[in-house]
């Protein structure tokens, strides 16, 4: 008897369909990431080896050296994936790798809006350093807390940006003679 490998698409296709049909679940996705990433950071603080530490340091240096959003996006994504790898939990790693395209689009979408707010870039950089440095110090509680705070911040900022965009769209519709229609409520 053999067990067939479950392909990433068997896992991600239903999620991609869900995201496509219900874009309002973006907040649920960020909530999920907050839970998973905070625990991954704690595990990485306990389990990371010298190779993992070197890769985390490289990602932090790349974030610091980035002089345009696209470079920082790539370093941001790489840091999150390296943390999953440093957790040394193969199931977690495979699930988050399968979701990495969502992670990438989530990071890029959030950053494209967040870079319009000057102090936000520095806040994100500092949050990434707090997570990485806690892992490097082998401090699981601080790593978990820093990752949780980072995703809570992203989630809060994303919700504010989405609300502002909704208000702007309503104003533009009124300006163009359109009626007022309220966005669908999250169920």
TrEMBL record:
InterPro entries: GntR_C (IPR011711), TF_FadR/GntR_C (IPR008920). One of its GO terms (molecular function) is DNA binding. It comes from the Bacteria. Pfam families: FCD (PF07729). Residues 28-153 form the GntR C-terminal domain. Keywords: DNA-binding, Transcription, Transcription regulation. PANTHER family: TRANSCRIPTIONAL REGULATOR, GNTR FAMILY (PTHR43537), UXU OPERON TRANSCRIPTIONAL REGULATOR (PTHR43537:SF5). This is GntR C-terminal domain-containing protein.
């Amino acid at each position: 008897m053999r067990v067939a490998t479950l392909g990433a698409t068997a896992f991600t296709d239903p999620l991609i369909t869900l995201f496509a049909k219900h874009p309002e679940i973006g907040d649920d996705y960020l909530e999920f990431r907050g839970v998973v990433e905070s625990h991954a950071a704690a595990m990485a603080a306990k389990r990371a080896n010298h190779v993992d530490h070197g890769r985390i340091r490289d990602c932090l240096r790349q974030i610091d050296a980035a002089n345009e959003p696209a470079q920082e996006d790539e370093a941001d994504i790489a840091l999150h994936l390296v943390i999953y790898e440093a957790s040394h939990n193969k199931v977690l790693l495979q699930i988050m790798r399968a979701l990495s395209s969502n992670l990438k689009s989530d990071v890029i979408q959030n950053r494209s809006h967040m870079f319009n707010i000057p102090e936000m870039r520095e806040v994100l950089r500092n949050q990434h350093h707090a997570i990485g440095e806690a892992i490097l110090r082998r401090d699981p509680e601080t790593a978990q807390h820093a990752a949780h705070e980072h995703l809570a911040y992203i989630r809060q900022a994303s919700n504010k940006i989405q609300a502002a965009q909704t208000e702007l769209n309503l104003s533009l519709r009124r300006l163009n003679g359109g009626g007022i229609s309220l966005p669908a409520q999250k169920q």
